[in-house]
Amino acid sequence: MRSEIVTYGLLAALAIGLLTAAFTDLRRRQIDNWLNAGIALAAPAFWWASGLSLWPGMAIQAGLGLAAFVVLAGLFALRVMGGGDVKLLSALALWIRPDHFLWLVLVMSVLGGLLTIVFGAWHVARRQSGRIAIPYGVAICAAGLLTMFGKSLPALQALSAS
Known about the structure:
Blueprint: H1 4-28, H2 33-49, H3 54-77, H4 83-93, H5 98-125, H6 137-161
């Protein structure tokens, strides 16, 4: 069952959630659990509204989210990623089609590298000592929005046209 109004409303809510996550990560270097939980818990409504089949569609999306969490939790254990970033990217994996998720990860990596260079330069220019806190959630959110607008929306429009 497809409901375009609900689908686009949920995508708008996701965009607002991602922008909120980016803002809070920039400001406080923290992404709130309630925000990550809200993004994850709204995904099944998006699946239903966009007409995703229970099997294998929803099962694959849930599997992608779980696989992303397992891999990213390993990176968290190695102190490579922050906990909020792990939860945000895992929640976002529930929304992004598996064939678009690799693109999201690649874009996120490039943006995260650029973000690291900018924050590193700023850190050096201000002659600060200590560890640099990179708001990597900004890269995750930007990649999520680029994927949503560049890949997901055209795919939804193509489905509604047929």
